[in-house]
Amino acid sequence: MNKLNLRLSVLFSLGLFLQGCVHAQTIVVSTQGNNLFEVDMDDCSYRQIGTVPMRTTDIGFHPNGNLYAITSVGDLFLVDFLTGNFTQIYTFEATPSQLYTALTIAADGTFYVCGDAGNLYIYSLDTNSGIRLGNVGFAAEGDLAFNNGELYMAAANDDIVRVNTRVPSASEVVIDGNIPNRLFGLVSSAQSCQNLQTYAMTDQSAEVYLVDFVNGTLTPYCDIPLAVTGGASTFEFFGSAPVVIEELR
Questions:
Q1: Are 31 and 46 in contact (CB under 8 A)?
Q2: CATH number of the domain enclosing 206
């Protein structure tokens, strides 16, 4: 893609984002019953909008607007929750030591996937190929999410880990949650055009927490009676590469 087309593409995506961030972003969660729910974080209400494939452990929205799901055995699906159709598009490396538990997608369309053995992979729709980046040194409990250009992972022991995508072994714990239940959901959502809020959710009765990466804290927010396996928001991929307007001029 040449610089002009890249610039137009970024401007188009930014336009969609700015239009969308005037309103609350759509947050969806997958559950242990293979159902898909939309959650309104203003009042923590929810409604079922569809289903996900069996053994789905996490979900993510792509910049193309589509929703994708990863299963525990590494199958990647395109999910059409309006029709209830699922299309398997890829299978990550089968390893007896790893269950795949975490998925997110960056603004450039790169899929990031991790599992309970800590192996981190990327995947490209354009080439339909995946690459193992390395091991992060922590077990992915349930989700990945971007915030302010950094990739974070909900890890075992209620920790949140900042993932070093260039040197995965250099990943580090930035929040020691020390909370009841296990962190299975990590979702970044635009609260306004200047504020990206990340929420953490537990697996049972979905205790929702506000994540403060600056102070390294989790603050209780609300409870949702759902057994969450993963979560995503429609524009969370912008957290991977915050757009500076000056850079587009």
A1: no
A2: 2.120.10.30
